[in-house]
Amino acid sequence: MAEIQINSLSKSFGKSKVIKDISLSIQSRSFTVIVGPSGCGKSTLLRMIAGLEKIDTGEIKIAGKAVNDLPPKDREIAMVFQSYALYPHMTVFNNMAFGLKLEKKSKSEIENRVKEAARILQIENLLDRKPKQLSGGQRQRVAIGRAITRNPKVFLFDEPLSNLDAALRVATRIEIANLHDSMPDATMVYVTHDQVEAMTLANQIVVLSEGQIEQIGSPLELYEEPENLFVAKFIGSPAMNIIPIEILTTGINPVGKINEKIKINLETKFSSSDKGRELHLGFRPENLMLAKTDKNSFTASVSLVESLGEYALVYANIKGSSTDHNIIAKLLGTPKINKGDQVSFQIQKSKMHLFDEEGRRYINGKKQV
Amino acid sequence: MKFKLNLSSIFSQLLLLFFVILWITPTFGLLISSFRDKDQLAISGWWTSLIYTEVSEIHRTKGKNEQSKENEVYFIRGNLFKEDKGKKILSFGVTSKNINAYMVGEKAVLKDKSEIVVFENGDYEWRSENEFKKKKGRRIFITAKSPPSFTLDNYKEVLFEAGLGQAFLNTIAVALPATLIPLIICSFFAYSLTWMNFFGRDILLATIIASLVVPLQMSLIPILTIYNDLGALFNIEAKSFPGIWMAHTGFGLASTTFLLWNFMKSLPNEMLEAAKVDGASHYDTFVRIVIPLSIPAFASIFILQFLWVWNDLLVGLVFLDKHPSEIILTAKLKELLGSYGENWEILTTGAFISMTVPLFIFFSLQRFFIRGLVAGSVKG
Lengths: 369, 380
Prior knowledge:
Chain A is of the alpha+beta class and 369 residues long.
């Protein structure tokens, strides 16, 4: 039972502000993933929760208690580091028992807790080995085991999978998800730059960019209703297509103009003052389909086709009013499209996202957060 | 096993061989010389002692009391060598003017018509028609090939008679504490410089690095003066073992701290943070994690500091008396060498004795130079 409350937190290294006035509430028992491109301050935020980084201004509360001035060991947290950070001269058992030994727990208790953690992570047969005799995945499991034995209220993960190879990453990701299920009382905070990890693990995602929170929400909320261009481009792979669009007519059947030839019907309600505004139209690659009718379609010339069997990624470009716009379409199966073809596309109904000039989600009449 | 033969590897092997020979040769020479007879040492190089060498010696035959008479001819027979050392005589002479006058087995005819024959193994026969009159025998000059001969006399002399044994113990009494004390102090110091944040840390570090360039000789006398004053205050003699321990500790502090700091800095940051999260205090981290992982650094710094102290003469001369109970090995060797540098056998033997300890230290600590002790902690 430990919720984390972060109130207007700031941090700078020298002159560069890394965390800019962040407020965030992390529910008890939740699995919160902090995601963002490298250098966005996500690791710093995690290290501030852990107590490894000093807080400049603001406050962090864990389980209702302000922890600003508490050392890491008194915050009832455990952390799993990106580089495993095992103690190389100790056996796996001693690595996992280190924290308990420092707490002066009895020998039998230490043994029980280490054995229990080893059982959960299936590393019972590795307990006598040294870290250098382990593979990368095993090392990361030991690092997780070290966190489990201390039975903390909050688990902090700092990009724990980024050093593993692709296959192992998927397997370990599933293990971490299972770990959260098997320890329902623990609050987990997980930092990653990989949006797939964020989407699969989290029940709450915090998107961070340049020290500021862009959006907080469940994975599907972020996917379906990105609040701004940054989140729209960051979540989803391949990224959402964004092209500028000029509002030609408002009213019952609003029309937007991409270039002189391409005009498409929009479903958003606009106010009459929006006429002539330059907005951004976003649509996900999988929401593009080959046009069955001429109505509401646009033509693009294909520059590359990546056929993956299950689906094909079609890279194409549309002539814009000033520059060309590259778009990606994700088409199921193996469409008969070749490089250089002129293909007619349609955007799936109600899957269009509109963003205003500042990059915020366009709000007018439509339900908004 | 497959050997890759390319030009650069051959070159580096040859270079290695060259340096090995360059280093081994004088050491080997020193070893051989220390076992040689001191008279031979003075006249010929050590390399000559490995093979038969030509020596010129003077021996005397027996006198008239030993003569025997056979068929009206008088003989004196015997062997020139008192004890058989395996020498082989090549030639001999009967006057000092011409010591190589006769080959072995040749008859030398003397003025009084008597004849002397000398054989290879030193046997001689002196034949005369007339009775021998002289009580003393005749001088015979020989040139002989002498086999290699080695002796432990030098070691006996140096260790037990010249007092080098005591000096040896004194040096150990100086070197061990003077190595261990700075190592202990500096490991704490280096840890705090590396992993603790405190006011003035960078300035302190800069000062240490700066003090590396101050030559020891500059501070020698001021420090001795301070010691004297302090000693007088407490009525203790300034020149004593604790004094020299402190002196060596002080002189070694900067370099030892710098080297350890440099090593500890390379330990993975996240590992120490993990310890912090695990609840380890700075002391726990230091004792349970940093020290075990710093053993290779400790071993190499131990060797450096120990060698420095062991081979030191200046500090030992300044901070210790020349009593037999305090004098260190280097000072004693210098004393034994004599003002003209003539006692070579003492120099070579003493040098070799003083070399054994550093060699022993080096080889016994070698197993601590484990590569990749930190392997497995973080992604490599």
